[in-house]
Amino acid sequence: MTPRSFRVVGFGRAGGSFAEALSSVGWRLDAVFGRGVALDDAAADVDVVIIATPDRAIADVARSIQPVDETAIVHLSGASGLDVLAPHSRRASVHALMTLPDAHTGAARLRGGWFAIAGDAIAGELVAALDGRSFVVADDQRARYHAAASVASNHLVVLLGQVERLAASAGVPFEAFLPLIRASVDSAEAFGSRRALTGPASRGDIETVERHLQALDESERPLYRVLSNAARTLASLERTPREDE
Description:
By secondary structure, the chain is an alpha/beta fold. It contains 11 helices and 7 strands.
């Protein structure tokens, strides 16, 4: 596979991560564009332009770049479709399904990671260069896909925050819960979420759930109640034919 030349517009955590990762596998970083820089010729004499700006700025950035038929324009958004890259003919999206806390850590995570891709074949080529794995997400499914990613990352951290608070209020170290958390994730991976589910709500033990609620600070109750109800719903799902075999 021939290494590509590329430029990056926006050099935050995502832009820096992709720049470092792609450079490490032989792609040639030609230039980086920050705020206030004229972008008219950003697509000239280069294979790929990666737009790594916040979602709200992608369309404006794309319009400010003079189209070049041979150059692919790629955005890194999980929620945005390909329409935001008009008027360019070669459009693609590559969304890294992972957190990129800084350029160096992000670059390491990109190697071998999972990516949601769409559009021009350059998206698959980019992922292949990083030894990654990919799946295609159509424009009309982008918001739903990105919602799943937000739940998997952001909402999970919110739940861990509640564990941390409740543990502290009971005088128990948060670290003691980490093996349980990891085991739950491993079980969901191995058996699926419904079969991995345990606890009082999944067993229909309403008395224990009520005791929990009475013990919690009022500010913690709404989240616990919503998730207990969700656990009961998940536990009540019909068994699949495969599980009944």
